[in-house]
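Q: May I have one protein plus its fold?
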Amino acid sequence: MEPAQYQRWQEGGHFHVPAEYVLKKGLSPYVIVIPPPNVTAALHMGHGLNSTIQDVLIRWRRMQGRAS
C-alpha cells in the first residue's frame, strides 16, 4: 500500500464509522468479536482463514450500509 494513499484514507475516516452517524441514521450495527491473538501452536492456514473470513464479512456488511 502506498503511504500517501493510506494516509488519505485515514484522514478521510474510511476506517471508522462515527457513533453519532449510527445513532442519527438509526442504523443497526454489525459487530464481530475478535479475541486477542492466542496462538498456542505453530501457525497454520486456519489462522489466516479465520482473519480473512472476519474481514470479508465486515466489509460486505459495510458495503450494504450497515455500521460496521
Remarks:
- Helices lie at 3-11, 19-25, 45-63.
- The mean pLDDT is 82.
